[in-house]
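step: validate -> pass
step: tokenize input -> pass
step: predict -> running
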Amino acid sequence: MARYPQGQPVRLTTTVKDNTVNPAVPVDAGSLKLTIKRPDASTQDYLSPTHDGAAGSGTYHQDIPAADLTQLGHYQYVWVATGAGAGVSPPSGFEVADPFEVAVLSLQDAKDHLNKSQLTVTDDAELLRKIATIEASLERHTGGPILNRAVTERVDSNGSPWELRLMKRPLVSITSVIDLYTGAAIDISDIELDTNAGFARRKSGVAFGGVSQLYTVVYVAGWGTAVPPSITEAANVILQHLWETQRGQSSNPRYGADETVTLPGFGYAIPNLAADLLAPYARVGAVA
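step: predict -> pass
step: emit ->
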């Protein structure tokens, strides 16, 4: 699914077809409407799509201004034609993302790595989708954010009232611990962090003391304020592998050729070189 940074206009295209013949042929619609459903479920209609006559019969586009794409999240849309080619298109969609969201690769770096011209934008949406997929897989494999990020998490300390077992790692710092029942802030002045295991413990061994032993914990986790070079290189290797295998091209031998492995957190095989580059950052106990 295409992903666009918030603040960028989006062009949507369609080809109206006459499905009463087989095979179907493009045909100009009697009228054509585009309806978009925003992430908050509100809708907006566009009643005058542009007819791309130079591209042939039945081809249209609609430019969606950035002012209509202010919400982050998933947008769905359908085209509704009347007259010739009457019908409703299958639903389609796109994502509007925060332009400042953390990414292990920028679009520019990805295009440079694949030796693609920065002026060619045809594959930009696909590249952004692959980058986001790689980012999510890396975070599942390493157990937390690649760059330092604030995390809010509900924690149940029942069974270990003197420690908080947090999901994201490595831990960087604890910002606050709030008793879920009373809303009171818990003193964190004597907390020590087991950064790789993801534990925050009382140095004194005394229980945190919440009434319900349920807490809202705000903390920072990640590998630093800059992406570690080996993670960036691993992301490049994975991107090139995904790009080439999808197109039936053989992988570059220096990236391990056909030798691949599926690591925890990845739902697809990646080159051995990428796995080696990620080894220092794998969650403890995560093995192929």
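step: describe -> The longest strand covers residues 73-82.
step: cleanup -> pass
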